[in-house]
Amino acid sequence: xxxxxxxxxxxxxxxxxxxxxxxxxxxxxxxxxxxxxxxxxxxxxxxxxxxxxxxxxxxxxxxxxxxxxxxxxxxxxxxxxxxxxxxxxxxxxxxxxxxxxxxxxxxxxxxxxxxxxxxxxxxxxxxxxxxxxxxxxxxxxxxxxxxxxxxxxxxxxxxxxxxxxxxxxxxxxxxxxxxxxxxxxxxxxxxxxxxxxxxxxxxxxxxxxxxx
Length: 212
Ligand code: B1M
Hints:
212 residues, Methyltransferase, Methionine Synthase (B12-binding Domains), Chain A, domain 1, Rossmann fold, globular, binds CO-5-methoxybenzimidazolylcobamide
């Protein structure tokens, strides 16, 4: 790996947003392509952050500062990537289900999805089934639902039913997660997948879209 790409990778892992910004400017000035910076610097860095999180070496604060560093890098590269025709892996619409205002986990999942190369539409919290259905009608390929309350989890089932009623269920993949959610619940309500944490959520989205 080029020194400057290694430094971008380390900047993301260490959550050092200013150094990531400086290194990206240097890499671009040296003629490194935006796509290479994205894949070998930012995405590789975020993948390492996810792996450390799964090994319990990193916790929520480290994830958040790494994601902030990655976001700063993405902002610098976005227009160049669009201009060079780099396509995202797919479009994910993520939200916390109706009645539920918890968003920290959902935001982490969103950041890991972006870090993995997806276009993410963050629908926010308290998202109604109708809003998820609208997303499915407007180009979203993966509906990603988060719930933290046992009382709001049934909103996932209601959303899947609403997708079916609207005739769009077969056109989207549905993934779910959140502290009270389990694989058994995903199976029970007919979701396409369940992920226990943010980094496995990014892997699952890739699997669902055949983009591994
Ligand atoms: Co609330 N809350 N809360 N809360 N809160 C819990 C969830 C609770 C377990 C606390 C407790 O009683 N021990 C409990 C739920 C009990 C239950 O239903 N079984 C609870 C309750 C009861 C409530 C209220 C009802 C309290 C009240 O008002 N009486 C109320 C509900 C408000 C509402 O939503 N309508 C409430 C409110 C709040 C705050 C607003 C104060 C605040 C939320 C702030 C915010 O999110 N902006 C809050 C918080 C912070 C918590 C705890 C302490 C922490 C949640 C959190 O952010 N965890 C929580 C107790 C706890 O977990 N220790 C609790 C960190 C986060 C990174 O983890 O969200 O699990 P998590 O996300 C993980 C994975 O689950 C997974 O990846 C993430 C990262 O690895 N994941 C996905 C999440 N979504 C995913 C989606 C995927 C895949 C993976 O695919 C799509």
